[in-house]
Amino acid sequence: MNAGFERAFLLHRRAISDSQWLVDFVVENRGLMRMIARLSGKQAIKHKAQLQPFQALLIRYQGNGELKYLQHFELDTALPALRGDKLYCGFYMNELAARIIPINEPLEQIFSLYFQHLQELAGAKDLGASLRCYELQLLESLGYGVNFDSDYEGDAIDAKGQYDYYPEQGWVRQAQPVQGYGFSGAHIHAFARYDFCEPQVQRAAKHFCRYILKPLLGNKPLKSRELFKSR
Q1: pTM above 0.90, yes or no
Q2: Please, are residues 90 and 9 in contact by the beta-carbon 8 Å criterion?
Q3: pLDDT digits (tens, 9 = 90+) for 160-206
Q4: Rounded to an integer, what distance in angstroms lies between the CA atom of residue 138 and that of residue 209?
Q5: Helices (H) and strands (E) in the chain — how many of each?
Q6: What CA dihedral angle connects 223, 226, 228 and 231, to 10 degrees?
Q7: Sign of the four-CA dihedral 8, 10, 11, 12
Q8: What's the CATH class of domain 6-75?
Q9: Do residues 219 and 83 lie in contact, with contact meaning Cβ atoms separated by under 8 Å?
């Protein structure tokens, strides 16, 4: 690696003038960083074409405040291109990360987690299972991990039981299970193993992940989710 450069992936970019972008990067050993990128001169068209999501980059920046200034970037190792539904899933991964990862907090594992799941997405056959793993592991890395082994009283999750989940408590077993409500113990065990092969488990995991992500995302809808629905 060139001296002074750090590995990064672009998550989001937004034009703030004809020659400047506001860009969010996930940076190795750093976490999420926001920068201003100046793209002008003879190389502007080339640089705009290169500064794309899902492209491994080497970046150099400066600035002591929360907002940094991108000084220079280079293309790093090429990755398999995302196409079709995988591309939409990649947009979701990026938007979710940009929305819930705090800026400039030293979250060293975030880059490795993102890089790992981006590579896995390129070769994934079950995209839903891939996204559920990403969501749960991202939450874990941010300190919002869920204990899938025991309920709020410390008792082991019973595969035959039915449970509700409360963020401030954890899993609470239903005294009288209600059909269609809560999560089965068997499904919770599957969540713990990141085993989303069975359609019923995957549907339950999707519902659960949306539930626990909602407080972090707020009421603003995810653009990538809407784009996927309208594709």
Answers
A1: yes
A2: no
A3: 999 999 999 999 999 988 777 899 999 999 999 999 999 999 999 99
A4: 11
A5: 7, 8
A6: -120
A7: positive
A8: mainly beta
A9: no
Sorted by sequence, the CB contacts under 8 Å of residue 43 that are 6+ apart come out as none
Question: In this structure, how many other beta carbons lie within 10 angstroms of the beta carbon of residue 201?
Answer: 22
Q: Strand, coil or helix: what is 175?
A: coil
Tokens of 148: 């899938």
CATH code reported for the domain at 85-229: 1.20.1440.120
Tell me the residue ranges of DSSP E strands in 28-161. Answer: 31-38, 57-62, 67-75
Exposed (0-12), middle (13-18) or buried (19+): which is 231, by Cβ within 10 Å? Answer: exposed
What pLDDT, in 10s, does the model give residues 20-33? 999 999 999 999 99
Question: What are the structural domain ranges in the chain?
Answer: 6-75, 85-229
Q: Which residues of 82-121 are buried (b: 16+ CB within 10 A; e: fewer)?
A: beeebbbbbbbbbbbbbbbbeeeeebeebbebbbebbeeb
Q: Which residue has the tokens 């490795």?
A: 112
Report residue 214: phi and psi, to 5°.
-55, -45
